[in-house]
């Protein structure tokens, strides 16, 4: 089974502590790659993830599904203090929209 390592979620950012770019993969939080250029850093983290996937396949380990291929329902539960709930409900009422619309709008920004 061939897996496309490029479907995973990557980030390249500057590390002041290391004075190099660091490459990360969201689906494999324990993996990273350091390099002096952002381009080489991306190539490096791609290589590490590909090697990891190959190793996991050989050992019969469960392969994480890329975030880009996961299905999300659009629903999740969050607990907030009652006074925040009251404030949001009032804000929604005054705006003439649902509580869900107010919260969704705030989360999107």
User: What does the average pLDDT come to?
Assistant: 95
Number of helices: 3
User: What percent of residues adopt helix (DSSP H or I)?
Assistant: 40-55%
Structural class: alpha+beta
Record field, number of beta strands = 3
Task: Kindly provide the radius of gyration, computed on alpha-carbon positions and rounded to a whole number of angstroms.
Answer: 21 Å
Q: Unreliable stretches, pLDDT < 50, 5 or more residues?
A: none
Name of the CATH class of the largest domain: Alpha Beta
Word description of this protein:
- With 109 residues, the chain is of the alpha+beta class.
- The protein folds into 2 domains: 5-68, 2-Layer Sandwich (Double Stranded RNA Binding Domain), CATH 3.30.160; 72-108, no CATH class.
- It is 41% helix and 15% strand.
- It contains 3 helices and 3 strands.
- It has a 3-stranded antiparallel β-sheet.
- A hairpin with a 4-residue loop joins strand 1 (10-15) and strand 2.
- Helix 2 packs across helix 3 (99-108).
- The protein starts with 9 loop residues before the first strand and ends with a helix.
Helices and strands, with pairings:
Layout (H helix, E strand, L loop, with lengths): L9 E6 L4 E6 L6 E4 L2 H21 L23 H14 L3 H10 L1
Antiparallel strand pairs: 1-2, 2-3
Helix pairs in contact: 2-3
Task: Give short descriptive properties of this protein.
three-stranded antiparallel beta sheet, elongated, 2 domains, Double Stranded RNA Binding Domain, 109 residues, alpha+beta
């Amino acid at each position: 089974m061939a897996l496309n390592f490029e479907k995973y979620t990557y980030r390249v950012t500057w590390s002041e502590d290391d004075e190099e770019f660091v490459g990360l993969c969201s689906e494999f939080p324990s993996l990273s790659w350091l390099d002096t250029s952002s381009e080489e850093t991306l190539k490096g983290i791609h290589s590490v993830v590909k090697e990891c996937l190959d190793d996991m396949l050989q050992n019969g380990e469960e392969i994480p599904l890329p975030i880009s291929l996961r299905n999300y329902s659009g629903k999740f539960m969050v607990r907030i203090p009652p006074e925040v709930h009251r404030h949001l409900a009032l804000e929604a009422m005054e705006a003439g929209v649902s509580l869900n619309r107010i919260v969704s709008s705030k989360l999107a920004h």
